[in-house]
Amino acid sequence: MALKTDIRGMIWRYPDYFIVGREQLRQFAQAIKCDHPAYFEEDAAAELGYDAIVAPMTFVTILAKLVQLDFFRNVDIGMETMQIVQVDQRFVFYKPVLAGDKLWARMDIHPWTSVSAPTSSSRRTPATTTTASWCWRPTPR
């Protein structure tokens, strides 16, 4: 099934910034069972040289979902998103994310051509894998 709009090579910039909330970070860390004190306590983060509590690395998946929703709301690809398989996702970090940070995001869409598992279907579905959750342990600056 062909896409109505060729999105290969497209760069989508999220039109707004995202402010990282302190309580959001605490709730997220608790939900993914990351128990490092720097995710919860400002004193523990300060001992490591940070000005605020630190975000688990997978916290940015919240912003990534907002970017994806915005993209599909604004770009007519000619099919339902349930027909698309995401095969890769990558985040680029320039520094640790802290409570109070303003984050800007963009999504770069790259073509995907290889198949790593045999398939019994001859129907080609546009493909754009989600990374597994992990706990990053904050280290001193």
From TrEMBL:
GO biological process, one term: fatty acid biosynthetic process
Disordered: annotated segments: 115-141
Signal peptide start and end residues: none
Pfam families xref list: FAS1_DH_region (PF13452)
Positions with biased composition (Low complexity): 115-133
SUPFAM superfamilies the UniProt entry points to: Thioesterase/thiol ester dehydrase-isomerase (SSF54637)
GO MF term list: (3R)-hydroxyacyl-[acyl-carrier-protein] dehydratase activity
Superkingdom classification of source: Bacteria
Record-annotated FAS1-like dehydratase domain positions: 15-113
Entry-linked PANTHER family: HYDROXYACYL-THIOESTER DEHYDRATASE TYPE 2, MITOCHONDRIAL, HYDROXYACYL-THIOESTER DEHYDRATASE TYPE 2, MITOCHONDRIAL-RELATED
Protein name (database record): FAS1-like dehydratase domain-containing protein
